[in-house]
Design brief:
Elements (H helix, E strand, L loop, with lengths): L2 H6 L4 H30 L5 H28 L3 H25 L6 H24 L6 H6 L3 H4 L1 H9 L3 H14 L6 H25 L2 H31 L5 H30 L4 H37 L3 H14 L1 H16 L8
Length: about 350
């Protein structure tokens, strides 16, 4: 191993803490996603449209959290990859956390508002920081010599260079995020989200235009991820404005589910392609990890659904607790078994097919 590779694998204590934080939050998020999926389809009174949209959202969040976990495990010793993993886990755990709070009756209260706002700010700021750092740090000099309109036009160059400073970026993102809470002006929230995503697209594009073939290969699909999210958001806003209140409930339901499914598909496809082509994770590892997580999740969900039918009623009556609390107790117990069962399947696959993990790099 040469000195450059060895240096790239050296991490500070702060980076190591961030890496472990990503892995921990990802596992918690996946466990909560399983709980939310089961809870969603237990609500017989909820409209089918809402249950489908909730399922699409939770499934997307779960998939992205798994990807963030894989990046942290396999490539978290690289600062650019770690920045991307942090951005993904912060952005998608925000939705999982908000939905979990809503299940426990904290949908509109102060706790939910504060938690959702802070987690949204965290996810938005870390997303922009990742676009500034992946696959290499963007500097003011790099922006100035980039053959893009943003680099050549002085006002945009000054803005983009100034936002490279964390102490400037965080307050700006906080202000944009708070616009989403302005009562009576829903378009402000849409505008703020598009600005945040747009900044990510611009920084990805600067790195793409200023980089060599290797840098372009690494950044291309992450740029497509951000650009796709912006494009779908614009389509959703335009569709919402076009149909207004005149469309029938059936049409609104079909459009809602279709656009949400499209949005999720764009995100999962782009980020999965980025992982394969960016070199953050080897294809052999991701295949093995996907098999392990798929087998583990499927097995636990099967047993969870089966055992809950028998245990739920007994827990409610013996402990005199609510249905939601009983479900959370059973879900928590199964969540704790996730890692041991996953470890067993991974060990079994290694024995059957040999190790496909070439080591961290």
């Amino acid at each position: 191993m040469n000195s450059e590779v060895a240096a790239s694998l050296e991490t500070t204590p702060w980076e190591s803490l961030q890496r472990w934080l990503v892995m921990t939050v990802s596992v918690v998020g996946v466990a909560l996603s399983a709980f939310l999926l089961i809870h969603t389809w237990q609500l017989d009174s909820a409209p089918l449209k809402d249950r489908l949209n909730d399922t699409i959202g939770v499934t997307t969040e779960c998939a992205m959290l798994v990807i963030a976990w894989l990046i942290a495990v396999r490539a978290g010793r690289n600062s650019a990859n770690l920045a991307m993993a942090l951005a993904i886990v912060a952005a998608y755990f925000n939705g999982t956390l908000g939905e979990t709070l809503a299940v426990f009756g904290h949908e509109q209260d102060a706790l939910a508002n504060i938690t959702n706002t802070l987690s949204y700010i965290l996810g938005a700021a870390l997303f922009i920081r990742a676009s500034q750092k992946f696959p290499r740090d963007i500097t003011g000099e790099l922006i100035a010599r980039t053959p893009t309109a943003w680099g050549q036009w002085k006002p945009t160059r000054i803005v983009l260079t100034t936002l490279l400073k964390p102490w400037v970026l965080w307050p700006v993102v906080a202000l944009l995020s708070l616009l989403d809470d302005v009562a009576g002006v829903p378009l402000l929230g849409d505008f703020a989200r598009l600005v945040i995503i747009g900044l990510g697209v611009v920084y990805f594009w600067i790195n793409f235009r200023a980089g060599d073939a290797e840098v372009r290969r690494k950044v291309l699909w992450f740029m497509a991820w951000a650009a796709g999210a912006a494009a779908v958001s614009i389509v959703i806003i335009a569709t919402r404005a076009a149909i207004g209140a005149d469309a029938s409930p059936a049409v609104r339901a079909v459009l809602s589910v279709t656009l949400n499914a499209l949005n999720s598909l764009v995100q999962i496809v782009c980020v999965t392609a980025a992982i394969f082509y960016a070199g953050a994770i080897s294809p052999s590892l991701i295949i093995r990890k996907t098999v392990v997580f798929g087998m583990t999740t499927a097995l636990l969900l099967f047993f969870f659904a089966s055992i809950e039918v028998f245990l739920h009623h007994e827990i409610v009556h013996l402990m005199h607790v609510t249905d939601t609390f009983a479900s959370s107790m059973i879900g928590g117990a199964f969540g704790l078994t996730f890692h041991p069962v996953k470890h067993y399947f991974e060990h079994l696959l290694k024995r059957m097919f040999g190790s496909t993990d070439p080591g961290h790099g």
